[in-house]
Amino acid sequence: GARIYETECSTQGAYASPPHDLHTSSSDFADDLVYNALQELVETIQHGSSSGMFYSLVANADYGPTINPGCYGTPNDNCLPIEAAGITGKLVPQVGYYLLRQLDAFVQPGAHAISSTLGAGGSCPPPPGDPATNEPRSCLWSVAFQNPGDGSIVLFVLNSDPKRAERFSVRWHRSFFSASIPASSVQTYVW
User: Fold this and answer.
1) What is the mean pLDDT of residues 154-173?
2) Span 104-114, mean pLDDT?
3) Which of 62, 46, 33, 56 shows the shortest CA–CA distance to 4?
């Protein structure tokens, strides 16, 4: 069958000018991390994409150059680059950098996505930027990969709950472990 490639992804979130002031509030970074991990990584892979390509690698202190004032041509829809040049010219990693780095450190070239299911049941507030729904949703999200060569498994877990840590269990063939993930965070497991 045809392969699916998610292109022109761009992390979105709150930014200040100049970039060295970015994410002065830890809740802004946590909100941006949850939203982008879910939208640009987890759901992209869960929906069958072979990749997710970010297109804005570096921006200057004014978050340019750009053709549009925002991701979709609206000033309030902010596209964050992977890194931004602060007023001193030093590159400042943004939320997309940390997300890509999290996977890049463990998922090898040629790895393929495998099925994973996690769930904490109950209802969780929708991630920042997602429309509110009346459907109960899990606070835990995951994607898993099998690396070529050594066959190692990589499990990327997201807790979208802004207030509570969540416990979960992983079973792989005859192996089993339990773990806890803090609120608004991501973790990666390899075995």
Assistant:
1) 90
2) 93
3) 46
Instruction: Report residue 50's pLDDT band, with 50, 70 and 90 as the boundaries.
Output: confident
- Residue 191: Cβ-neighbour burial (10 angstroms; 0-12, 13-18, 19+): exposed
Question: Mean pLDDT throughout 61-89?
Answer: 64
Q: Would you state the structure tokens that stand for residue 171, as one six-digit string?
A: 């079973």
pLDDT of amino acid 108: 94
Contact (CB, 8 A) for 125 and 159: no
- Collapsing DSSP to helix, strand or coil, 147 comes out as coil
Dihedral over Cα of 52, 55, 60, 65: its sign: negative
Residues 155 and 43: their CA atoms lie apart, in Å, by 14
pTM listed for this prediction: 0.77
> What DSSP assignment string belongs to 81-112?
PSEEE-TTS-EEE-HHHHHHHHHHTTPPTT-E
Would you call 145 helix, strand, or coil by DSSP? strand
Could you give the C-alpha distances from 43 to 9, 37, 81, in angstroms and in order? 12, 8, 20
CA 124 vs CA 81, 133, 169: distances in Å:
29, 10, 18
CA distances from 109 to 7, 103, 112, 147, 149 (A): 18, 11, 9, 8, 10
